[in-house]
Known about the structure:
heterotrimer, B: 775 residues, alpha/beta, 7-stranded mixed beta sheet, 19% strand, globular, C: 442 residues, binds flavin mononucleotide, binds iron/sulfur cluster, binds FE2/S2 (inorganic) cluster
Amino acid sequence: MLTSESLKRIDREIAKYPADQKQSAVMAALAIAQEEQGWLPSEAIESVANYLGMAPIAAYEVASFYNMYDLRPVGKYKVSVCTNLPCMLSGGVDAGEYLKQKLGIGYNETTPDGLITLKESECMGACGDAPVVIINNRRMCSWMQPEQIDKLLAELK
Amino acid sequence: MEIEIDGKVAQVPDGSTIMDAAQQLGAYIPHFCYHKKLSIAANCRMCLVQVEKAPKPLPACATPVTNGMKVFTHSELAIKAQKGVMEFLLINHPLDCPICDQGGECQLQDLAVGYGGSASRFQEDKRVVFHKDVGSLISMQEMARCIHCTRCVRFGQEIAGVMELGMASRNMHSEIMTFVGRSVDSELSGNMIDLCPVGALTSKPFRYSARSWELSRRRSISPHDSIGANLTVQIKNNVVMRVLPRDNEEVNECWISDKDRFSYEALNSPARLGKPMVRVDGALREVEWSVALDYVSHALKDVVGSSGADSLASLASPHATLEELYLLQKMTRALGSGSIDFRPRRRDFSTDGKLAGVPWLGLRLSEIKDLDSALVVGSFLRKDHPLFAQRLRQLGKKWGKVSLLSVGGDDPLIRLHAQLTVSPADLPLALAAVVKSAAQLRSEAVPAGLDSVEPCASSQAIAKSLVEGEKSAIFLGNVAEQHPHAAQLHALALELARLTGASCGFIGEAANSVGGYVAKALPTALNAYEMFAQPRKAYVLLGVEPDLDCHNPQQAVAALKAAALVVALTPFSDGAVREYADVLLPITPFSETSGTFVNTEGRAQSFNGVVRPFGDARPAWKVLRVLGNLLNLPGFDQASSEQVRDEIIPSGEGFAGGLSNGLNGVPLALPVTIGGLQRIADVPIHFADALARRAPALQKTRDAAAPTARLSAPTLATLGVTDGAQVRLRQANGEAVLTARVDESVPAGCVRVAAGHASTATLGEMFGAINVERA
Amino acid sequence: MAILGAINPMLSVGLDGDNAWRLADYVKRGGYTALRRILEEKVSQGDVINEVKKSVLRGRGGAGFPTGLKWSFMPRSFPGDKYVVCNSDEGEPGTFKDRDILRYNPHSVIEGMAIAAYAMGAGRGYNYIHGEVWEIYQRFEEALDEARAAGFIGNDLLGSGFSFDLFAHHGYGAYICGEETALLESIEGKKGQPRFKPPFPASFGLYGKPTTINNTETFASIPYIMNLGGESYLEAGKANNGGTKLFSVSGHVNRPGNYEVPLGTPFATLLEMAGGMRAGRKLKACIPGGSSAPVVPAATMMDCTMDYDSISKAGSMLGSGAVIVMDETTCMVKALERLSFFYYEESCGQCTPCREGTSWLYKVVQRIEGGQGRSDDLELLASVTTNIMGRTICALGDAASMPVQSFIKHFRDEFAYHIEHRKCLVPVDVQRAGSGFFTATA
Lengths: 157, 775, 442
Ligand SMILES: Cc1cc2nc3c(=O)[nH]c(=O)nc-3n(C[C@H](O)[C@H](O)[C@H](O)COP(=O)(O)O)c2cc1C
Ligand code: SF4
Ligand code: FES
């Protein structure tokens, strides 16, 4: 059920590991599947598992262990904000509250138009740039004061 | 290496852990995740002990012994650590022991008494874990009880070879589960119930039916496959409530198959026959034993008298006990007939009379772990012999080179050295190619008749592994025995063994596949196939269900229906037997009789009945003895099954004598291969015997799905049929309609149609030509 | 400019400009000369390791283990594959230095890994990069392509006969994968659950083969050590604490960011470089080595120099060099609650004390912060932490316990106040002002 484009990308990942260690590519493959589908339905996890020759439950273990995989549908944009202590000291929690208020949703909720899901996240290794926000696991936005958040939301809408 | 534990000194080999040393000394260290057969996880932390000079307590299960190590398992430090762990284990564990199914046999409960605090300091809400539905065998209703020891997960990965359960998520939300919607019913799954130290994984059929302390425990032996797994059968009010493995490292280790575990449900089946029945005016009527036996003895005498002893044939199930098989053959012969057999699925009998001894595995089960290489020929290994496959799985994980020469590409879940999948007709040819490769490797002359054979890379690889292995073995599976050219396969395997120095033997279909030979339940006239191909006037059937158990069920049933007299000794009153039997004699299954099974390695394991017979059912050996008396036959005065056994195997002998797989005068001659579509018949694990067929929980598993006609996509395409379509299957004398399914593991030109099921009982032979067309 | 300030820098020299990360730029800065010299002069493996030993480079990932010594544990004559693995799974709250190293100086890591591989006879390497810094992962892959094209990695490096291939593996959101054996499991395509040791990675590592794991900064320092000589590198720092180190300064300072300073630099100097305290407020406490290190009260901290020994004497750890600065607007209960949530959330879930204990700790601290504390809660917390510490497979259990113990030890009054009065000692509006979120743009 994965597109041939995704499978090609997965093949590139598999090539990084010894020939008998295909399973090493599972994290990358799940990330690619999630990018393709927007989230990770169990069919996608199973396809990845079959493609890599591993038990579906083993792939599910991986998908459910790492935070950035979404096992439930999310909005078009998943906005994750770090609220860990170093960020909190520089406004991470406040930024989260600000986002909640602007979007009218809580953490792990999606705006009614399906556009934005808000998530609270752990340390992203960017504490010097606090508050930090990541869009769809990929794009990191630094120094997110109210004005920058407003700008970001305007851009996403 | 020397280690001192609590003042006691032990010498242990290099690489031992503190836990190993403690077990050697008989010192108990509390533990949950540790299990002798599983890899070390060291995650429960219950086994923390104090080690001299170590600043922290160390887990005994994972800490390697160093020379001169001093360990304290009960020091203040150790006890404090163990109590600390116990407190953590209990904070989220429901305190529902009074209603928990594991109550009384829960390791957590036992240890909590010793290590738990009195009152909980944990005042928060306990973790809530949702229950899961994982099929008919295992209940995962109370997963909040799970202590995350991961034994169940490791069992799947390491022993069963299939990861059915995993621990998803992380932190305290970690949860044992299956992949979305999957059931847990591989052929070994039930062992996870035993492994689970708490009441998280419990037996679904057993659930809530009894408390562990209400049960009495009896020893028994599994009547199913040829391993002869040792069982503990648990009883309440004269009813078998549960079956558990009994440790026997040499036989079943600590495992049993799901069939061994759950087929007991059939013992309490409503289909049990409780009274003798005789057909009167076309209908079966219940009668007293005296009436039934009187009827049978007269009827047998009549047939023999009027049509000659040749008109009588007896067929037994290879699941019958040694004693039953012995008395049946004795009675049949005494009546003058040599048509007696216990191998209903066999087709080729040309080695009869040429065997050097009793065919068997060729080595002891416990020797498998020391093999360097092994070749299995013609077997649906995982499903035919779950525990045997398990041993090969462990071998493959180590250094052993395990190869498979088979007719179905089923994944045995073994790390294979080489695998060759061919059509049944090509099986002798493929084995011959290995023989030829071996001869070439050994620089010996290629055996006559094999010149034209062309070895491929796989056959060469297999031969090489056998030649190079210091200890190697060749195993002939069920397909090799049921094959139309079984004798050639046997001869080729012997030749391969000679060339490579490997042992050679049969895995054996059933609990008494070796025992039947020992009991001499073998034909001197018509064999199991001929007795139906050349219909007889009278038949005596012992525990066998010909419509499901015979090589050609259609032929067997036709002969039975036409016979003047069919006497069926059976524990069950349902099924096709009602259509053709004239007399039904209720006999007891293994749980209600004493007897002996001789397993594949020749081990004679006797057992006693564990409950009283159901209704008026009687042990078959007694029924046969009485019949012998009524028929005025000599040698039927045994007072006990032990006395019967003593006539067969000298008392005190643990193994049957005369074991040998040698052949006298069977020349190598390759069969001509046939063209056209061929049938491959496997006997699905839960259709393989009368008990499994009637065990409701087993019948709800994936393995019990109704048969389909399985073909590779190209083969299906040549027939102009699509996946999912209904097809009509036709053999010489039978036909059936099934759903066609694409299965790429089926060799080209073949259709796989399972035997042993009512929907295919109208078909003919298990192997050979078959016609498939759109229905 | 990647790194906001430096004293006698090495790693962060010449990183101005958008192309500093490119191979050409790195070579212009003297990059790959160390690797080239080692390969061309056929410097012996032992000599490379000795040079690292002489530098007294201590691992920059947290534990501060001497790198040269670690490298010498790798079996010399192992017949099969061996691996070097770089730990760029920077997830320790407060740490963000590896990201800048990879962003601005990725080739220093590649060169360092190639030298390490040569010294230990490893043919393959992986760099495990924190999932959240995706652009960094992509950039590193590009840098790998550059290095491969130039013959610095791949087959037969610079015609020396030595081959080493290097790949990037990304994480996807699990702090525990920073723990080296969890990281190996993760590369193997499993959940990141730490392994029991022994066996150590040097004998049973990635795919069961001998493996050495070092932090990004550790590897990045290697070319500089080789060029400078071990002794000079050591002298750049202080005795037993070789070289310079990147410190990630976060929290209540005016210029949060990375600063490269010689080990042994006074904390006061570092604080000053980071622009001093935000809004001129007073230092209350500092976590000097990432969130897992014990918190140090202001007075003690101001007396410390930034090196492994001094910080250890102050009762904490230099750890990864993440300096979390807290001023008087900080509620220590709230701070601890957030940290405890982190460890509870990030526990891998395999061993009992950590899985159950971290959630228990969090629930109790949360209860105190929420005004539901009980009089014996502080004793309970102390007891639960002792039942966790030293009893788990990896150090996450310790990491979760040390903040709890140190926060309570140094700020007991604040916790007691919280339990008794069911509210913070630091008024909520004061706390709110501390972050500067709503005032920054005004
Ligand atoms: C819970 C935990 C998290 C860790 N996180 C990191 C990390 O993010 N980065 C890192 O380099 N080391 C981390 N470590 C330390 C590593 O296990 C390992 O000691 C280090 O990578 C070795 O490299 P070094 O000797 O160069 O410091 C962590 C350890 C633990 C116990
Ligand atoms: S379900 Fe049972 S066996 Fe499996 S992890 Fe939980 S307690 Fe252990
Ligand atoms: S038995 Fe040793 S940690 Fe579980």
